[in-house]
Design a protein that fits this description.
Number of domains: 1
Shape: globular
Distance between the termini: 21 Å
Strand content: 25-35%
Order of helices and strands: EHEEEEEE
Helix content: 10-25%
Length: 132
């Protein structure tokens, strides 16, 4: 659950596994298709892109080719570039969120300096993650 006082927010989660791509077969040898950099980076990319388009409120009307996200884990801001307005990328915070083993999640928020509170998994009430 995500709760905010104001602003735009998008969140996406996935459970990456090789089985997710097993329906795509290489036509020459019938092997399961695996993204070139691996399954986890692919889902990291997908959840980050999906969180951004949700925060923008445009869904897939916003072409995925109009912005770039990092595939690396733990980057400070995973939104690398936006087109046609390159300055728009600086207006958003796009972060990986730890939601549990076996999951990949991303949170995109308009602006900077937000706080994530995890009430469910906190050892002390609540666990806070501050993002500047």
């Amino acid at each position: 659950m995500v709760w905010m006082w104001s602003g735009c927010v998008g969140i996406s989660t996935s459970t990456p596994s090789p089985a997710d791509s097993s329906h795509r077969r290489n036509r020459s040898n019938s092997q399961p298709w695996v993204p070139p950099r691996g399954v986890r980076p692919f889902f990291r990319c997908w959840t980050r892109k999906e969180a951004y388009i949700k925060a923008k409120g445009q869904g897939l009307w916003l072409p995925l080719s109009q912005f770039d996200v990092s595939l690396e884990a733990g980057v400070e801001n995973a939104l690398l570039a936006t087109r046609p307005d390159p300055s728009e990328a600086a207006q958003w915070s796009l972060r990986e969120v730890a939601v549990g083993p076996g999951y990949v999640a991303a949170l995109c928020v308009a602006g900077h300096g937000f706080r994530v509170q995890d009430w469910k998994r906190a050892k002390s009430w609540p666990r806070q993650l501050d993002y500047d």
